[in-house]
Amino acid sequence: MKGLLFACGMLICVSNASMAQSGSSQRIPLIGSTAPSFKAPSTSGPVSFPGDFPGQWKILFAHPRDFTPVCSSEILDLAYRQKEFEALNTQILVLSVDRMVYHQSWKADLEDIDFRGRGKVRIGFPLVVDSSYAISYRYGMVDTQTRSGQSVRGVFFIDPENTVRAFQFYPSEVGRNTDEILRTLQALQAHDAHGDIVLPVNWRPGDDFMKTHLEPEDKVELKEPDSDIYYINWYMIYQKYHEPEAGSE
To answer: What is the value of pTM for the model shown?
Structure first.
């Protein structure tokens, strides 16, 4: 009996040590790095990331557990606004460490809810299964502060070149803001479309851009009465926004 108890104790110690080692080896992929690839089952069938989404932006949206109140409100709001993401050539992938049976049941239940009087909605994006924690560890999203072992509220913005462009982490008790996720995505896309601009505080589509410096041609334009370039001081330079001409994109 003592031998059995000793063996069980050793097994627990080894398991805990393995979990601790895995937790300590977590690395959040930094901005500018290549997004870790993965293959996993989902409610939309097998997912091979990023190969299944060529030429698209991707948003990896992790949540702690299925059938939890905050997560449910987040997924429903994403579902109501999924066409806005589609219009921005962006694929949403929702991830948690729960098993497929929970994902499927939760998805079916959510699709039967009229949230905030907007009517029922179909969830068109995949709920990815990460019950092995493999994906969550690659993205540094395992909450090692909880005994239950769950993923954090993480959002990764990944561009068509599969580069991590931004990420956001929230505590489990605070829901995310869909408007801010869309705004960040639009700001990243605006930067890529114009190249030499940056986006000021609270920027939204249609607002003026900022420039980090003046090119020689910019200095010439500044002298024109109808210049698109203006400044508050030498290190806060703005460029007026103009709607792109039809057929220019």
So the answer is: 0.86
Residue 23 reports pLDDT greater than 80: no
The reply to whether 31 and 83 lie within a common domain is yes
Identify whether residues 152 and 46 lie together within a single domain: yes
Pairing of strands 57-62, 153-158: antiparallel
My answer on whether 230 and 155 are in the same domain is no
Q: Which residues lie closer than 8 Å to 23 by C-beta, 6 or more apart?
A: 142, 144
Examine the pLDDT at 6 and tell me if it is beyond 70: no
Rounded to the nearest 10°, the torsion over CA 145, 148, 153, 157 is 100
Is 163 in a helix, a strand, or coil? strand
Rounded distance, CA 131 to CA 35, Å? 20
186 closest CA partner among 161, 166, 163: 166
Q: Are 222 and 161 found together in one domain?
A: no
> Under a CB-based contact definition with an 8 Å cutoff, are residues 92 and 125 in contact?
yes
Whether residue 20 has pLDDT greater than 80: no
192 close to 204: Cβ distance less than 8 angstroms: no
- My answer on whether 53 and 151 are in the same domain is yes
- With beta carbons less than 8 A apart as the criterion, state whether 176 and 64 touch: no
The residues annotated as belonging to the active site are: 71
Q: Do residues 35 and 146 share a domain?
A: yes
> Is 153 in contact with 181 (CB distance < 8 Å)?
no
Instruction: Show which of 127, 144, 176 is a domain's final residue.
Output: 176
Note down the domain range covering 231: 196-239
Q: What are phi and psi of 155, to 5 degrees?
A: -130, 125
User: Taking a C-beta distance cutoff of 8 angstroms, is the pair 125, 84 a contact?
Assistant: no
Examine the pLDDT at 1 and tell me if it is beyond 50: no
Q: Is residue 14 part of a domain?
A: no
